[in-house]
Amino acid sequence: MTSRLQQTIQLQQKISPQQIQMIKLLELPTMQLEERIKREIEENIVLEEDTESKNEEDAPEKISVDDYIGKEDDTPAYKARVNNFSKDDKQRPVYITEGHSLSESLVEQLRFRSLSDEELLVAVYIVGSIDDDGYLRRDLESLSDDLAFTRGLDVSTAEIERILHIVHELEPAGIGARILQECLTLQLERLTLDTRPKRLALKIVTNHFEAFAKKHYERLMERLRISEDEFREAIDFIRTLSPKPGNLYTEGGIDTTPYITPDFLLDNSDGEMRLTLNTKGVPEVRISRRYRDMIKDMVAADGTVKAEDREAVQFVKSKIDSAKWFISAIKQRHDTLMRTMQTILDFQREYFQDGDKSKLKPMILKDIADRTDLDVSTISRVVNSKYIQTHFGIILLKSLFSEGMQTVTGEEVSSHEIKTILEECIENEDKRHPLTDENLMDILRNKGYCIARRTVAKYREMLDIPVARLRKQL
């Protein structure tokens, strides 16, 4: 075998760091963009918040330090950290207080129990394995193995089961349950009142839970030999219980209510639509004049730099370049978002007039990409996790996109229109005899929508509507 040299020419497409930065900024909603800009200001010393005038255009691209630097391109190490604190300054701690979490509350309740050190350790480990819903979803064998490996405790599953029953006695009721049936049973057993609906509800949950979950109501009434009114009272009693006991704890818990900050604002007060980008709270940035003046002072009239200043100039130059890239990416993000949203607004103008979903046209990402001359992936990043505030509510941009479907007359309609009809049919159905997917398919076909049963099932699942059997009521 002989070795030889060979020349090859390859054409590769690589994304520059500036493009990667632009892509990441494009995906960020308004709230995260604000945090990202503030973090960049902290990391880049030449960037500062423009507080003088938001309308004043700062053009850092006119500043070029390439003329000030010699032919050396290596960037040496340079420390810009400085201690600006005086000896007289006292750091005052900031105390942030909030209520106990669910786990902390459970551990605190355990300490009032008469438990040995080993039992308390096992109980605390069980509490740490409970999820936010209040369920213990890990099997006891896994807990026993974890205690052996991490704590060095040889605890049998029977002993863990015994200590788990102690956890079941804590507040809120139902905490530490492994399945829904156990959760409801624990809550019913905790109630002190002794009424017939409560006893009947406990009997249903304990002995006939599978039939109850499948809503085989007639079969249950026949087995229990009770009237429909008695059964309805028991069902109403069960509905007062919580399927997620973790949600019953509210002190210092996590606020699960979503807070949405719209990325776009649409004003339609005078009959004319005016679209703006929501920049409230988003700081405007610029390159600090202090560092501009500093670098000019270190450069001589002939463009040379002293040897002792070259390291500092090279460092500031790299920071200015990074700042210029960041400011340019922010501006490009603004232009891309407005360009895309304006195209969506023009495409769905009838819908944005009054918010009637039946007026939504079939629209996919490629439709907007073709009209904006942007890539489909760019449109996907723009609409991802973005919201627009209108006079009829805050709308998720992704919800405006839907597939098209033709009626028997050849008219193309949006899937939103079909979903609206499905919701109306299910809302007005006889709850004793709910409409099956096949019944819904026949109704849609009678209205002129050629749709298959599996498509009806897909739309029903997208609307988070259960099957007919689970919608049955007395």
Overview of the structural elements:
This protein has 474 residues and is mostly helical. Among the domains are: 17-71 and 280-323, no CATH class; 102-168, no CATH class; 180-248; 403-474, Arc Repressor Mutant, subunit A, CATH 1.10.10.60. The chain has helices at residues 17-27, 30-43, 102-110, 117-128, 140-151, 157-168, 180-190, 196-207, 209-213, 217-224, 228-239, 289-297, 307-347, 349-354, 365-372, 376-383, 415-427, 437-446, 453-462, and strands at 47-49, 264-267, 274-277, 285-287, 387-390, 393-396, 404-406, 412-414. β5 and β6 form a beta hairpin. α13 (307-347) crosses α15 and α15 (365-372) packs across α16 (376-383). Mean pLDDT is 80; it is low at 54-65, 67-89, 93-97 and 252-257.
If you average the pLDDT, what whole number results? Answer: 80
The unreliable regions are 54-65, 67-89, 93-97, 252-257
Q: Helical proportion?
A: 40-55%
Number of helical segments with 4 or more residues:
19
* Range of strand content: 5-15%
Q: Give the terminus-to-terminus CA distance.
A: 86 Å
Please summarize the sheet with the most strands.
Answer: 4 strands, mixed
Radius of gyration: 32 Å
Find the structural class using helix and strand composition: mainly alpha
